[in-house]
């Protein structure tokens, strides 16, 4: 019989948040794959336990190479436990490749649910939580970061991001540029730790606050775009939305269809607005020519 892959959540700060099953699974596992074996030793000491199975490292640098080895152990009947430094494996952490490989081999995959920075920040943000999407880390390069933000500029669900503290001010400034300076947001820092802090405000105000420097683990929660009915969108706004989607990589046809759907308008109306704007841009003042 094949073994079982167990994804185990670990505390994001307070060790007392460790799931009750975590200690038992650590002691039971035949193989423990850890993002950082030193952090794992600290965790087991804090829990007052010892691992009896083989401990191997499993991090971004060796994830591709080590996955086949772990799959082989699973095929041989081993119980493999995967832990990362904090939170749930595979959520912006190593794990996805191993899960995908195990699923492909029809190997059982289960989880020990645990703390999540995404859900904790969302709950503390004070922003709508009924619908949200997790965007992970934004690209480091400014141009790529702006492009990624433009892709979700009209997203109505609450957005959740991870960010490094030294890039937070630039990221918040980029968000203010793309989403609007007054869009509400929350910066959640050092969640469940001694110096936990949740700073709420507009993106403009938060960017100014972060300019002085921020430390710790950061999760950013941003309010979704406001819903707008057809009567609130003039031709200029329709064209702007199409341009935002085109800049994010969508073909014009798909961008027009998406904008029309969001606005509750016929595609022809959005298409006509785009064509009119294109013709107006080409027209030379005083040449006596009309729109073609």
Which SSEs are present, and which pair or pack?
Layout: E1 4-8, H1 20-28, E2 31-34, H2 37-47, E3 54-57, H3 63-75, E4 79-83, H4 96-104, E5 108-112, H5 117-125, E6 132-137, H6 142-151, E7 158-163, H7 168-179, E8 184-189, E9 197-202, H8 203-210, E10 218-222, H9 235-247, H10 252-263, H11 267-282
Parallel strand pairs: 1-4, 1-5, 2-3, 2-4, 6-7
Antiparallel strand pairs: 7-10, 8-9, 8-10
Notes on the protein architecture:
- This protein is α/β, with parallel strands linked by helices and 292 residues long.
- 42% of the residues lie in helices and 18% in strands.
- The strands form two sheets. The chain has a five-stranded parallel β-sheet, with helices on both faces.
- β2 (31-34), α2 and β3 form a beta-alpha-beta unit.
Question: What would you call the quaternary organization?
Answer: single chain
Main sheet overview: 5 strands, parallel
Radius of gyration (CA) equals: 24 Å
Strand content: 15-25%
SS elements, strand count: 10
Q: Residue-averaged pLDDT, rounded?
A: 92
Structural class of the helix and strand makeup?
A: alpha/beta
Contiguous runs where pLDDT drops below 50 for at least 5 residues: 287-292
Helix content: 40-55%
Shape: elongated
The side-by-side strand order for the widest beta sheet comes to 3-2-4-1-5
Q: If helices are DSSP runs of H or I spanning 4 or more residues, what is the number of helices?
A: 11
Distance between the termini: 71 Å
- Helices and strands, in order, run as EHEHEHEHEHEHEHEEHEHHH
């Amino acid at each position: 019989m094949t073994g079982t892959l167990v994804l185990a959540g670990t505390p994001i700060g307070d060790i007392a948040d460790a799931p009750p099953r975590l200690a038992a699974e650590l002691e039971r596992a035949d193989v423990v794959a850890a993002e950082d074996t030193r952090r794992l030793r600290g965790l087991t000491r804090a829990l007052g336990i010892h691992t009896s199975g083989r401990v191997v490292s499993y991090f971004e640098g060796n994830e591709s190479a080590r996955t086949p080895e772990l799959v082989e152990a699973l095929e041989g009947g081993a119980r493999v436990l995967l832990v990362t430094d904090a939170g749930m494996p595979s959520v912006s952490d190593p794990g996805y490749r191993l899960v995908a490989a195990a699923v492909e081999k029809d190997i059982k995959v289960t989880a020990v649910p645990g703390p999540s920075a995404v859900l904790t920040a969302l709950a503390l943000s004070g922003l709508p939580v009924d619908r949200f999407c997790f965007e992970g880390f934004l690209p480091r390069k400014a141009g790529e970061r702006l492009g990624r933000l433009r892709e979700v500029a009209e997203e109505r669900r609450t957005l959740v991001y991870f960010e490094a503290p030294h890039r937070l001010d630039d990221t918040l400034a980029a968000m203010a540029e793309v989403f609007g300076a007054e869009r509400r947001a929350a910066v959640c820092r050092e969640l469940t730790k001694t110096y936990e802090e949740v700073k709420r405000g507009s993106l403009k105000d938060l960017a100014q606050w972060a300019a002085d420097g921020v430390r710790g683990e950061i999760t950013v929660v941003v309010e979704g775009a406001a819903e707008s009915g057809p009567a609130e969108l003039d031709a200029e706004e329709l064209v702007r939305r199409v341009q935002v989607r085109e800049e994010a990589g969508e073909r014009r046809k798909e961008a027009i269809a998406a904008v029309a759907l969001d606005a509750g308008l016929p595609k022809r109306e959005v298409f006509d607005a785009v064509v009119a704007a294109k013709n107006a841009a080409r027209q030379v003042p005083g040449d006596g020519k009309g729109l073609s």
